[in-house]
Amino acid sequence: LGFVGWTVGSTVRVDTDERGRAMLPTPESLAPVALPGFRQTHPRLPHPSAADIDRLRIENPEWFNQLRFHANNGEGDLYAITLLARIEPGSQDLNRLHQRLMAEQYSYRGEQAKPIAVAYDWLYDQWSETQRAQLRDKLAEGVAFLVQFIRRDRLSPYNVYLYNSPFQALMAANLALYGDDPRGELYMRFTYDLWKFRVLPAWRQVMGENGGWHEGGEYVGVGIGQAVYQVPAMWRAATGDDLFKTEAGIRGFADFMVYRRQPDGTDFRWGDASYFDKIVPDLTPLALETRHAAAYSLRPPSNTVPTGWPWGPLADARLNDPLAQARLPLERRFDGIGLIVARSDWTPDATYVTFKAGDNFWSHSHLDQGAFTIYKGGGLALDSGLYGPSYGSDHHMNYTYQSIAHNLVTVTDPSDTAASDGKTVREIANDGGQRRIGSGWGLASAPIDVSDWEDQRELYHTGRTLAYHADAGSVVAVADVTPAYTNAASGAGEFSHRTRRVERLWRTFIYDRVADVVIVRDLVTSTRPEFQKRWLLHTTPRPIIDGARAHVDLPPNPARRQSGGQLDAYVLLPEGARLNTVGGPGFEFWVDGKNYDENGTLAALIASRSQPVEPGQWRLEVSPPAPRTDDEFLVALVPRLPGAASMPRIRKIVQGARHGVEIVDAHGSRRWWFTQDGLDVELETPNGTQRIAVPPAETPAGGGLFERLRNWWRARFN
What is the pTM assigned to this prediction? Predict the structure, then answer.
């Protein structure tokens, strides 16, 4: 590969390969690493202490029997054999273990390095010098394999593949080897550079100050969810650098795990996901580390066991507190990914809402900036579609992945019909939605670090929160998601950037907890008046339209602990809006004149799934009565349990240059006022008027010079 390199501070960034893609540096191109606090003696990796073993013998003696079963007299699991040899020296045939370790062949993602690293490190004093030397050679071979694999495949800190084993294996093997062999020092240059200058800055960017991750469903568990504790724990054990204390985003990841859980006990539906209850391996040890009772109690161990790899803190029944959730705030904003989660309370009958408006981080997320969901007694406003029947299937790419499957606004230009220019030319439905970016579309590979993301910011910047407010009575967000539809490259008719259809799209999302009402306001400016605008709401049952109101009844589902619910949508603007429903047999996934149901086979596949998928069957479409360049949508959504004793009275109100929504119920009158510019929001109650909107919560695109320098400095050197 013809690499071109340049130096920034203590790091070398290799600009591009022969295909023009940014690449990670070679170990040889990087400066030596200074690790003054590095633990020179072994073990360096997290390992069982004498106190841990004493506790296990008292509280869970059966654990040792299970360990011996898995070790199978030296012919079973390598980790179990190593652990027994560590806690019961002389109990295992180390010659046989050495023989088996040396016979390992590095392949696929290099996970073979993990048991070798642990055995070399934990049993260092039990090996002969000859065995140690041979294991060092084997470790060096493994680290070299992993460095080559990560560089060759451009594994990205934004993507599940890096954390699906390679990164943890690299860290464990290099920490075990470093200081014992010159090759360890050379490879540590790469490992340190990847960790400190690529991975950690990406975590800070995505997790922000409050935690969070952009990939959907099970990808959290098989990816970041087995690195977010393991890697910082290994790094701390070997270097003394405690990132659990300094990195708010890592600590906040436990919050994210709690808040993404719906009242029915399954995870929310954002992004690519087939499973909504998968174990996240690092959650329990992270919860123990941060003493996060609510996160620990999501899936508490049934007995005293080690909870992490290569050795995590022992389970602690004192942290198991099913009531801990109820002591958490009812709202959390995950600022890195631009996601808001709010609820009425922590009971199974709670109203649970989500709203998303942020940037795109390439991997396993959808074209859904500005979308929202509502749950009460079940999914009322859905993130619809099925992740399947396989990645890249017609249903996945034409429907589930695209904006049409989400609760947002589409703006359709009939000429927006360019074919996909990925690996193969492919016709994709014109859904009127957002720019096609991220995994699967073939436009760009995953960014290899924050600098690579910033170099392509015009591509990946898709939205920002202009104003945000949360208190005991309400949650308010004003977001600009225009960049999700339009960037500087839009208008040339290219497939990914699409035609230029949207000049402005601001969405205000309000959850009025006192009234238990959601208000959604959109200010939409299209490039041409004839481009059709549609405001979308996805449901499972058919919405019943009655004038400017639509009603949805969701039946109970006892198997999923769902009591059933109902949703009323009051369309207050535009005046004279046209309400229409799309869906039902043969039209469930209708886009651009075709039903993307995999030739009629999708219904049987959905029915066969053991997981509680919610693909939806209907959507409500709200359209302006006539073509206009500028349109405003204002919709009040009232979620309730079945047979609600009373419903609030909802109406549009106007006063001079401002207008809004009045909600009258048993609590009295609550009036939400908006101004034409879209930023100011006021709440009027009998107790007075409160200005809700706050100054912009984020620096405008690009930021000021000081802000940009500060962010660059943090990404590079913190």
Answer: 0.94
